[in-house]
């Protein structure tokens, strides 16, 4: 009986003997896997589980194919959610040092819980080669990468428009933003023409930005509004004169067709600001409060919105308000609306390398191929440099100081790494350029700066010999991080080494909640593996992951699939109880001429299956591999073959019995080796009983082409059809399948007559019939000869 307690037994054993510790054996080809370092929030969810299950299946398969697999695991420890948790627990009063210490403690605790989950899933990563982004060796490498990029002229500090989350109080990158449909109010506001000849009505969802209005814009093709172009209007409340400009990017059908343009209103405003060389007015500060707004200064966005609306109403300038559905950009971490503002931050030049990044991406093999499009399209769309600084505390410090007077950047010296310019002394007393005061960068790095160098870090970069492990052979990740993790890794490794980071990128979709929605804490639909492991076992969950498919598309978690996987494992164990008894004492010797049609069919099918499953694994198509293995084993092997040879196993014909024992041993051995990457515990348990050795140290089965016999397969299928027809006939007559009959008549088409006649004795034994009569017919039919029975 299959019992999930065997899983923990094997997990402990593998740990004890360090079964997966990487030893550089130069006789074998190397296979390096760059795995995603999960964020250490304390739990693996089902998305992680499918991700890491695929990686583990590949690692186990590659080992069986003769590769020396280097499969370390990393942990992405730093960033916002951990800070939030620590802030919630300890308040905001901690000093930087105390705060960081608490964050480190929390990350360590979370990491250890997640490591246990990984072990519980049977993953075979090499824990001795683990990397943790908050630890000194890793921080030093991240900082070194920034120093090298700085030397190449790619890092700069400057004032630039950035996306800003007023809630998290930090700049964020565009890929950290999400579009969210929201109900909002569109406000129709009258602007008086400066020459008093009338008014123009504009529509805006952001009246609180009125103080930063630097122009009105209409579409020059808009018959109703084009007459206003070039005219001056007065900004209500603030009484400034601005011009009405014409731009074809203004949407004619939206609102009144006239818009107000603020320097940092949204991405379009910013574009028009540059295009028309409009004046710059900062509207909001980094706390999300109004600036340059006269009496509204210091109000929050929401406060300012109601104050301005009420003032406009009083002045009679608010024409009407209407509710609309509107897409706003929100921060993916906190779901709060983001602002555009101008801020002094640190950047890496990426804009000018879009073509190069595409070229690098084209050198990588993408599985499935279509997922490459996500990256190429993204590269086409980068119009800003990568803002790498974050206003956070628990992150890798930027290894730079700068001159307060002239802005000169002073990089850390390599031997100082890891360094924290927030507290450490600069390498120079004063600015080498102007003698001004040198201050350390206060901000920390975007976490993608940390994880963009994982293929280099696992290879041992920059130490001598790292090229042996770089580029990695494989990276596996979900579609959702192509634009971040993959994009930045491709860019950074190219900028640092001129090479691609990995040869193959295997991309899979997201695991959605059963309601087809993305799992998220805010929706409360996150499902972890614990409950499923507890109920069904880790191997069932792994089989579920394989059956969930491996293509780059999202799919919902179906509990029935886990249950189905579990019932397969139960079937596997039960059938092996029979196999172990059936082959007891078999010494491997048999005579070929004693192989029956049933046996030859099974040997041929088994070898066809090996060939096909091998190919599926090689293409990372776990869905096809798992499906074929289950269907073959459950139905062809258990439902038919085992039932068809039981009478031989329990019979007295030793020569026939040895032939059957040979087939059973071969099938058992190959099946377990083929299943091992997907269900490593179950396969290990059965294989050690079968062969007294570990299945994971075996080669993947090789297909014996000589045993593939099309004719034998066709004949086997025809025999199965006949057996099935007899079974159906018994069922139809309310008889148990093992109910003994005196005689049956099988009517068969001419071309199978000879085959059935040849196997008549076996058919009689299998169907528990004394006498099998044969007749000819166009179509197969079976008759139970009850008349004989009665007489
Ligand atoms: Zn935020
Ligand atoms: Zn200076």
Task: Please characterize this protein's 3D structure.
It is a single chain. This protein is α/β, with parallel strands linked by helices. 41% of the residues lie in helices and 20% in strands. The chain has 23 helices and 28 strands. The strands form eight sheets. Strands 7, 8, 9, 10, 11, 12 and 13 form a seven-stranded mixed β-sheet that branches. Strands 2-1-22-23-15 form a five-stranded parallel β-sheet, with helices on both faces. A four-stranded antiparallel β-sheet has the order 6-5-14-16. The mean pLDDT is 93.
Oligomer: single chain
Overall 3D shape:
elongated
Structural class: alpha/beta
Say which molecules are bound, naming each kind only once. Answer: zinc ion
Question: What is the compact description of this entry?
Answer:
The chain is α/β, with parallel strands linked by helices and 791 residues long.
Key attributes of the depicted protein:
single chain; 791 residues; alpha/beta; seven-stranded mixed β-sheet; five-stranded parallel β-sheet; 23 helices; 41% helix; elongated; binds zinc ion
């Amino acid at each position: 009986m299959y019992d999930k307690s065997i899983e923990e037994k094997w997990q402990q054993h593998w740990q004890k003997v360090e079964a997966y510790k990487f030893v550089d054996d130069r006789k074998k080809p190397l296979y390096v896997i760059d795995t995603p370092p999960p964020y250490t929030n304390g739990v693996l969810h089902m998305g992680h589980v499918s991700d890491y299950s695929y990686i583990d299946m590949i690692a186990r398969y590659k080992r069986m194919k003769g590769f020396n697999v280097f499969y370390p695991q990393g942990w992405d420890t730093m960033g916002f959610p951990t800070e939030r948790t620590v802030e919630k627990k300890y308040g905001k009063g901690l000093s930087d040092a105390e705060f960081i210490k608490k964050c480190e403690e929390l990350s360590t605790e979370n990491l250890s819980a997640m490591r246990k989950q990984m072990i519980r899933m049977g993953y075979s990563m090499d824990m001795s080669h683990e990397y943790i982004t908050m630890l000194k060796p890793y921080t030093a490498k991240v900082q070194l990468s920034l120093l090298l990029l700085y030397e190449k002229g790619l890092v700069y500090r400057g004032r630039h428009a950035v996306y800003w989350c007023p809630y998290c109080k930090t700049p964020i990158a565009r890929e950290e933003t999400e579009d969210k449909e929201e109900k909002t109010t569109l406000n129709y506001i009258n602007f008086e023409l400066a020459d008093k000849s009338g008014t123009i009505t504009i529509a805006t969802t952001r009246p609180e930005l009125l103080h930063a209005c630097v122009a009105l814009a209409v579409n020059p093709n808009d018959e109703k509004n084009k007459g206003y172009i070039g005219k001056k209007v007065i900004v209500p409340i603030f009484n400034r004169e601005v011009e009405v400009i014409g731009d074809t990017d203004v949407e004619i059908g939206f609102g009144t067709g006239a818009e107000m343009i603020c320097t940092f209103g949204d991405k379009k405003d910013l574009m028009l600001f540059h295009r028309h060389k409009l004046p710059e007015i900062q509207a909001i500060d980094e706390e999300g409060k109004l600036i340059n707004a006269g009496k509204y200064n210091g109000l929050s966005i929401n406060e300012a919105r109601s104050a301005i609306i009420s003032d406009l109403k009083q002045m009679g300038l608010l024409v009407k308000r209407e509710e609309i559905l509107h897409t706003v950009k929100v921060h993916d971490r906190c779901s709060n609306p983001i602002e555009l503002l101008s801020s002094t931050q640190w950047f890496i030049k990426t804009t000018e390398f879009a073509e190069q990044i595409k070229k690098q991406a084209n050198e990588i093999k993408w599985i499935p191929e279509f997922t490459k499009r996500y990256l190429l399209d993204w590269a086409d769309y980068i119009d800003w440099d990568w803002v790498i600084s974050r206003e956070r505390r628990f992150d890798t410090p930027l290894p730079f100081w700068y001159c307060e007077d002239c802005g000169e950047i002073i990089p850390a010296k390599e031997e100082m790494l890891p360094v924290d310019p927030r507290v450490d002394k600069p390498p120079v007393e004063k600015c080498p350029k102007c003698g001004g005061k040198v201050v350390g960068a206060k901000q920390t790095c975007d976490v993608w700066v940390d994880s963009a160098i994982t293929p280099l870090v696992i290879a041992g970069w920059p130490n001598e010999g790292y090229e042996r492990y770089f580029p990695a052979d494989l990276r596996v990740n979900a579609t959702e991080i192509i634009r971040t993790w993959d994009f930045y890794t491709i860019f950074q490794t190219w900028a640092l080494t001129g090479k691609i980071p990995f040869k193959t990128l295997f991309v899979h979709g997201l695991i959605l909640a059963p309601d087809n929605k993305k799992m998220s804490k805010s929706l409360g639909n996150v499902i972890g593996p614990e409950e499923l492991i507890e109920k069904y076992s880790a191997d069932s969950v792994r089989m579920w992951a394989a059956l969930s498919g491996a293509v780059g598309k999202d799919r919902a978690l179906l509990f029935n699939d886990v249950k189905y996987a579990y019932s397969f494992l139960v079937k596997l164990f039960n059938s092996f109880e029979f196999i172990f008894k059936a082959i007891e004492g078999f010494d491997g010797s048999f005579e070929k001429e004693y192989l029956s049609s049933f046996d030859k069919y099974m040997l041929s099918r088994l070898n066809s299956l090996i060939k096909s499953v091998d190919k599926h694994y090689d293409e990372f198509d776990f869905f096809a591999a798992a499906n074929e293995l289950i269907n073959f084993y459950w139905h062809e092997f258990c439902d038919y073959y085992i039932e068809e040879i039981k009478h031989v196993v329990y019979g007295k014909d030793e020569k026939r019995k040895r032939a059957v024992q040979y087939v059973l041993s071969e099938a058992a051995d190959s099946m377990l080796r083929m299943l091992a990457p997907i269900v490593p515990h179950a396969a290990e348990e059965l294989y050690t009983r079968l062969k007294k050795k570990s299945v994971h140290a075996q080669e993947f089965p090789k297909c014996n082409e000589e045993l593939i016999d099309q004719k034998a397969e066709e004949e086997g299928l025809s025999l199965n059809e006949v057996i099935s027809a007899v079974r159906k006939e018994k069922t139809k007559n309310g008889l148990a399948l093992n109910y003994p009959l005196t005689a049956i008549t099988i009517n068969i088409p001419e071309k199978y007559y000879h085959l059935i006649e040849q196997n008549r004795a076996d058919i009689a034994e299998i169907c528990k019939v004394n006498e099998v009569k044969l007749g000819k017919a166009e179509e197969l039919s079976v008759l139970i000869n009850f008349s004989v029975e009665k007489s």
